[in-house]
Write a structure and sequence with these properties.
Layout (H helix, E strand, L loop, with lengths): L6 E8 L5 H11 L17 H6 L6 E8 L5 E8 L7 H9 L3 E7 L6 H12 L3 E7 L8 H12 L7 E2 L8 H11 L12 E10 L3 E10 L2 E2 L3 E4 L4 E4 L2 E5 L3 E3 L2 E2 L4 E5 L13 E4 L18 E7 L5 H14 L4 E7 L3 E8 L2 H15 L3 E3 L6 E5 L4 E4 L11 E16 L3 H10 L3 E8 L2 E9 H15 L5 E12 L1 E8 L2 E2 L5 E4 H18 L7 E7 L2 E8 L15 H21 L6 H8 L5
Parallel strand pairs: 1-3, 1-4, 4-5, 5-6
Antiparallel strand pairs: 2-3, 7-8, 7-16, 8-15, 9-14, 10-11, 10-16, 12-13, 12-15, 17-19, 17-20, 18-19, 21-22, 21-23, 23-25, 23-26, 24-25, 27-28, 27-29, 27-30, 30-31
Length: 600
């Protein structure tokens, strides 16, 4: 067991693509965490999706042994965190388990929106921050400009920032020296009762439920009986270990260390992230503060393309929930799509990743409904309810007003694209709060309604700025909005999966666009199919899918015209009856295509 003064716990934080995972690779290489033949790029990104997209989705922990120039051996617990705004929860949990952070900034791009968000989280956790300027080998690198940005924008001293190239390994050893010098060792009591913070938990097919802990006081060893204080459950510890990044079994974990244990835990739901773990025989009286529970901001329905797959979908979601504490789901039914689940996400990328994982890891074909946010419905009698699914909106007669969530967005964009970004924010009902300059880039602070952001804001921001704009947001408040529910009816039958809440000013345009989209996607039948968009009882848009026609007069060669007329009238009556009883089957891919709402 290591002495506290020889332990350093730190997280690597940065904006997307500034080189966190590459720096983690170099540190593992320098400390000999893996033999040279087992090293590969992004060694901590274990998920196939992470490697394919080049992004980190899950925060990963690794324990390294570093022999300092003074001859002492230090234990470094490194946490590689995601950079995307949708995985901010992973970052906040990692920061709570550490004493310091390495802030990686691209020496060519400078400070970005997510850099700011992560640094402020590190400040909230009283972290010692080591600024690192990465990619200094690039021709466009300008370290002096970025040092000045660190001081002007974030307010941290840029003079002692370490200049490195994580790709080539240049000066990476200076980062290790800075960690030993500037990051404080953890505090803790070896002899006190066991107190450990549950940082993460996931399901491993060989080990069962694996629990990642940050030790505060006491020791945890094989054969101990432990209590989970919030879950009020107790278990017998089967094995204790650390990641180097391979699994390495150890005798025990002491104060300040980060490691894992397994204990025949059946469900990951029994391991609440942020829970305090203590010794059953000698429990602690004080619980750790834990983490703020994560609030889902985007909701959408998941339905199996084949209704017989419902049970498999339930099991798959259960397994995904094991590995992702910020993902939530509950059962729901839809007249159009049958049985499914209403799922909650931290953003659209989070939704996309979960959808992709269901397809890849569980071979499930699913239909997703339109993403929506949580609205607050204020009834006339003073009752307030939360609305997750637009299809469940109560009768407007009973509603006094509806509130929608607003966010505060920070956008950093080069001056050339500022006009286009301002117009986009205005089109999305945004309110400008601030416009300042950071060198040649503008920093915009806007208040925006969240339901405008979840559809296509991020994609459009990237396309109008040619990928140069960076975006970060945090929840601001609920505000009263003039919102209406747009229902879609096919052959006079409401399709609840396509219902959406929208601002009254945009309802007609969005309804018309959806009707046109569905007209092109729904196959023709033997009768006319009306596709309508409605607000309450008022139709705001309509398209008609024309009928396929059989030539019933083909067998009439000449003769009296009344014979043909009689046959056509008979066909018309049949079509009318067919229309009233006929069921229109909307193809599954039509739902997905119709919901890809862009403004083109």
């Amino acid at each position: 067991m290591a002495a506290l003064k020889h332990i350093r716990n730190f997280a690597i934080i940065a904006h997307i693509d500034h080189g966190k995972s590459t720096l983690a690779d170099r540190l593992i290489q320098l400390c000999g965490g893996l033999p040279e033949r087992e090293m590969r790029d992004q060694v901590l990104d274990t998920m196939e999706l992470e490697r394919e997209r080049g992004i980190t989705i899950k925060a990963q922990t690794v324990r390294l042994n570093y022999k300092a120039p003074d001859g002492e051996t230090y234990i470094l617990n490194l946490m590689d965190t995601p950079g995307h705004v949708d995985f901010g929860y992973e970052v906040s949990r990692s920061l709570a388990a550490c004493e310091g952070s390495i802030l990686v900034v691209d020496a060519s791009q400078g400070v970005e929106a997510q850099t700011l968000a992560n640094v402020y989280q590190a400040f909230d956790n009283d972290h010692e921050i080591i600024p690192v300027l990465n990619k200094i080998d690039l021709p466009a690198a300008d370290p002096e400009r970025v040092r000045k940005q660190l001081e002007d924008v974030i307010g941290i001293d840029g003079s002692n920032a370490v200049e490195i190239s994580a790709k080539t390994g240049q000066s990476v050893n200076k980062v290790l020296e800075a960690i030993i010098q500037f990051i404080p060792p953890p505090k803790g009591d070896h002899k006190g009762p066991l107190r450990a913070l549950l940082v993460d938990s996931w399901y491993d097919p060989y080990l069962g439920v694996v629990v990642l802990v940050r030790m505060i006081d006491g020791e945890i060893r094989k054969g101990m009986h432990i209590n989970m204080m919030a879950a009020k459950s107790s278990y017998l510890v089967e094995r204790v270990g650390v990641f180097t990044p391979k699994i390495k079994i150890v005798d025990c974990l002491g104060p300040g260390e980060i490691g894992f244990f397994t204990a025949a835990i059946k469900e990951v739901a029994d391991t609440q992230v942020g829970d305090t773990i203590t010794d059953k025989k000698n429990p602690t009286s004080s619980r750790l503060p834990g983490f703020k529970p994560m609030q889902s901001v985007v909701f959408c329905g998941f339905f199996p393309a084949d209704s017989a797959e419902f049970e498999r979908l339930r099991d798959s979601l259960k397994k995904l929930r094991l590995n992702d504490a910020s993902f939530t789901y509950e059962p729901e039914t839809s007249a159009a799509l049958g049985f499914g689940f209403r799922c909650g996400f931290l953003g659209l990328l989070h939704l996309e990743i979960i959808q992709e994982r269901l397809y890849r890891e569980f071979d499930l074909d699913i239909i997703t409904t339109a993403p929506s946010v949580v609205y607050r419905i204020h009834h006339n009698n003073g009752e307030i309810i939360e609305l997750h699914n637009p299809a469940d909106l109560p009768d407007p007669v009973h509603i006094d007003h509806i509130e929608e969530p607003w966010i505060e967005a920070t956008i950093l964009v080069p001056d050339d694209y500022l006009g286009a970004v301002l117009k986009l924010c205005q089109d999305k009902r945004g309110e400008q709060k601030e416009l300042t300059y950071v060198g040649s880039r503008a920093m915009l602070v806007y208040k925006l309604p969240l339901n405008e952001v979840v559809y296509d804001f991020y994609d459009r921001l990237k396309s109008i700025s040619r990928g140069y704009a960076s975006f970060d947001y945090q929840f601001d408040d609920y505000r009263v909005g003039d919102l209406v529910k747009v229902s879609i009816m096919v052959n006079s039958v409401p399709v609840d999966a396509l219902s959406m809440m929208i601002h009254r000013n945009q309802s007609v345009a969005r309804g018309r666009m959806l009707c046109e989209r569905l007209k092109a996607l729904i196959p023709r039948a033997l009768f006319k199919i009306p596709v309508q968009a409605a607000i309450g009882g008022k139709i705001i848009a309509r398209e008609t899918i024309s009928a396929m026609r059989k030539d019933v007069t083909a067998k009439c060669y000449g003769g009296d015209v009344s014979r043909k007329r009689k046959l056509l009238d008979k066909q018309k009556k049949g079509k009318k009856r067919m229309r009233s009883f006929g069921k229109v089957n909307i193809p599954h891919d039509a739902f997905i295509q119709a919901l890809k709402m862009d403004d083109n």
